[in-house]
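Objective 1b of the project was to move from sequence-level analysis to a structural picture of ligand recognition. The entry below was assembled by the postdoctoral researcher (A.K.) and checked by the PI before modelling. It contains the amino acid sequence of the target and the SMILES of the bound compound, magnesium ion.
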Amino acid sequence: MEELNRNENVEKAILVGIISTPEDEESMEELKELALTAGAEVIGVMTQKRNTIDKAHYIGKGKLKELKFFVENQGADLVIFNDELTGVQLKNIEEVLKVKVIDRTNLILDIFAKRARSREGILQVELAQLRYRLPRLVGLGEQLSRLGGGIGTRGPGETKLETDRRHIKNRIKAIEKKLEEIKKHRNLQRERRRKNQIPVVAIVGYTNAGKSTLLNALTNAEVYVEDKLFATLDPTARRFILPSGREVILVDTVGFIRKLPHDLVEAFKSTLEEVKYADLLLHVIDVTLADMEEKIKVVEKVLLDLGVMGTPIINVFNKIDLLDVVPKGNERNIYISAKNKIGLDKLLEVIEEEIFKDAEIVNFLLPYDKTKEYNYLKEKTKVVEEKFSEKGIIIKAEVQKEIKERLKDFVIA
Ligand SMILES: Nc1nc2c(ncn2[C@@H]2O[C@H](COP(=O)(O)OP(=O)(O)OP(=O)(O)O)[C@@H](O)[C@H]2O)c(=O)[nH]1
Ligand SMILES: [Mg+2]
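Corresponding predicted holo structure:
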């Protein structure tokens, strides 16, 4: 057990975790950051070395007694567990400790709830919270809260638990419907961009890596930057003109974290579709962290969960101003400082190379009856010039290899 400094007026929290791998230690450090971000004061940390989670109490029963003593002795208001707890575990632990008990998921959801600004973000967080709550509405007070069952009630024998459950389910349905509408709008926007042939570059990465700082450095977007977790929730898209004059859309996204709650990923799927449909991903990595490799893996795993496959990725190692020696890097691994605007030229160069790597200027002659091909070219390529001749339309366009191949019958010198 480890005692830390304390301060009045804020909720005093004790963190509890199970340690079975070195990564769990990092994860506990992160839990501390999360607790601070949520506004709690961490007055103690308690860990137990074991390989499995106890089904009933998460930690062993003896350890739980020790924890109870610690909680009472230190006057803790709140105990935070480093893994998602089941309804049964929550109930059992609360019964013993008699203070508020929350888990890592709930803590992250709480931070998200505090940070959400856009209508979509707020709805998504609420959805995640309800989905988290639904299977945890266990037991407590179930017997006592049986409704009267007379006129005007929802039927004899229905318990408070069932009413709550139904209420939550209805609310979930209502939110899903609203989100579906927002999603339609988003799809339209994406469709428009695609038609205009504007490539999308999405900035992804672990929370606090410097994604928003990078977007700001490139576009003067003034996106909120903070040395806390999950500063950004809503994807911010900005038009950006590359040095060659070609336009791309840069999208800043919500940061990832270890044990990112599944419900949250689900709820944020539609905003994260920006990532799924991007033409290129910039994976921003905080190069100063000891557990950098682990964090890279976490991000790659979340990307996989989102169904991102085959999208080119450039690793952008950030915060090199804090390094003594800066590695050289290559086309896939760029070293920058977003804050000090170091290395951005090189980054833009590789972005440009990657996105337009196989585009070339091609002339097509399309007979006037080839409207399908005409529309295809207009939608998929950047048409530079159109001329009307006797034989048809002469189109000069910047096209990718596959498109040229597909329309090879119409290519002219
Ligand atoms: N020293 C240094 N700090 C940086 C650099 N880039 C970003 N930071 C700092 O890192 C912290 C996080 O930056 P953000 O841009 O908010 O990070 P983010 O990845 O958008 O974080 P979330 O939105 O919370 O996921 C801030 O305190 C930044 O000032 C850099 O190049 N060098
Ligand atoms: Mg951010």
